[in-house]
Amino acid sequence: MTLKEYLEKHIRGWLPEEPNLNGIKRTLGQRNFVNKPVLGLVLLSLGVTSLLFSLLIATRTDTVVDTSFVLEPNEKVGPYENGTYYHTHVISKSTLMSEVLVEGGRVNFTANGYNTQHLKNIVINQNYSLVIEPADDQYTFTFENTGANQSSIGFTLKERWLPFLALLPASIILLISAPIGTVLIIRGLRGNEQKRGDSSSGAVAGI
């Protein structure tokens, strides 16, 4: 027996065997099929969550008009005086909310602007709340004392608005993560179906 044959006979068992590459590839493929749907759902959730979170933190409500005045009988205030006009924010989605408080004689109230068809010649005796949704561009408000007594009027206007530019980062994340997540989910589900089909075929062949 030569030295080479002796070494091969006594040392071969100590050395690690060559890896089974086919088995490794098959195992990794099975793991990918399991993880792709999960990864896809994570990406979709990340995009949707970031957008919803941006909506919550970006929406603002500001008091833009807070004024009061006294009107004598047949006296009129507005538009374009004493805080009776307002222009909404640009590049945003806005809602205007107002409250009118009247003490004394009745007041005729009119709002002019986009989406104010329901706010013409409103007679107010005490309190009146209004909402303009959606709101856009320039608005004017007119108050006229149509009663026989002096009227004290308090007028508050609030704007709830959402700047579209604040949603840009979250929108980009959603546009990237949604297609990738959808593709991963579809490929993972197809892979699982193929795996089950191969297992069924193997079982039938074994029988």
What is the rounded Rg?
A: 36 Å
Amino-to-carboxy terminus distance: 48 Å
Provide the residue-averaged pLDDT: 78
The outline comes out as rod-shaped
Biggest sheet features: 5 strands, antiparallel
CATH architecture of the domain at 57-166: Sandwich
| Structure summary, number of beta strands | 9
**Discrete helix count:** 3
Reading off the top of the CATH hierarchy, the class of the domain at 57-166 is best stated as Mainly Beta
CATH homologous superfamily classification of the domain at 57-166:
GOLD domain
Proportion of β residues? 25-35%
What percent of residues adopt helix (DSSP H or I)? 40-55%
Structural class: alpha+beta
CATH topology term of the domain at 57-166: Jelly Rolls
The succession of helices and strands, N to C, reads HHEEEEEEEEEH
Poorly predicted regions: none
List keywords for this structure.
3 helices; 207 residues; alpha+beta; rod-shaped; four-stranded antiparallel β-sheet; 33% strand; Jelly Rolls
Please describe what this structure looks like:
- This protein has about 210 residues and is of the alpha+beta class.
- The chain has a domain at about 55-165: GOLD domain (Jelly Rolls, Sandwich).
- The chain has helices spanning about 5-10, 20-60, 170-205, and strands at about 60-70, 75, 85, 90-105, 105-110, 120-125, 125-135, 140-145, 150-165.
- Strands 2, 3, 5, 6 and 8 form a five-stranded antiparallel β-sheet that branches.
- Helix 2 packs antiparallel against helix 3.
- The longest helix is centred in the last third of the chain and has 39 residues, at about 170-205.
- It is rod-shaped and about 130 Å long.
